[in-house]
Automatic annotation (TrEMBL):
Lineage top rank: taxon: Eukaryota
Protein's name according to its UniProt entry: Uncharacterized protein
Organism, scientific name: Effrenium voratum
Length: 145
């Protein structure tokens, strides 16, 4: 994917420098991940981070997590398996994150609480909550080995 910084100045003159960045996949971990920054956080977003946002496929599944400090983090998963284990009680806490998994690369940590899937609050009933998660994740592609 190629991105150009054609809007670097307000004058837009032809002699303005053009910034070109080429994003290469990590040769070891070829896992597409998008971390969404909540709107109330400062946005010192780099060009590379904006490129990841622009490259994110529209078929991802957004999980909202409540962190131990009570802040909220949205993570968009675009492949399965997710690579995280969680409690079989409500609320659902992440208990483990598999190394080099989709969840690990996205920065998911143990003790985070899964609160929403695709913007919908998880039901208070464990069976219903698991059903919502499984329905959402089922639509994600599995990477080819």
């Amino acid at each position: 994917m190629m991105l150009c910084g054609c809007c670097q100045s307000q004058q837009g003159q032809a002699d303005d420098p053009v910034v070109t960045t080429r994003l290469e996949p990590d040769p070891v971990l070829q896992i597409p991940v998008l971390t969404v920054t909540p709107p109330d956080e400062p946005s010192g977003t780099s060009l590379a981070a904006k490129a990841v946002d622009a490259a994110a496929p529209s078929h991802g599944i957004t999980f909202s997590f409540e962190l131990p400090d009570k802040s909220v983090r949205d993570i968009v998963f675009v492949e399965r398996p997710l690579g995280m284990d969680f409690t079989s009680t409500m609320p659902m806490f992440v208990t483990a994150v598999k190394p080099q998994s989709h969840a690990d690369v996205a920065g998911v940590k143990p003790r985070w609480i899964i609160t929403h899937v695709q913007g919908a609050r998880l039901p208070a009933d464990l069976t219903a909550a698991m059903g919502e998660i499984l329905r959402a994740v089922k639509s994600l592609p599995v990477p080819k080995a």
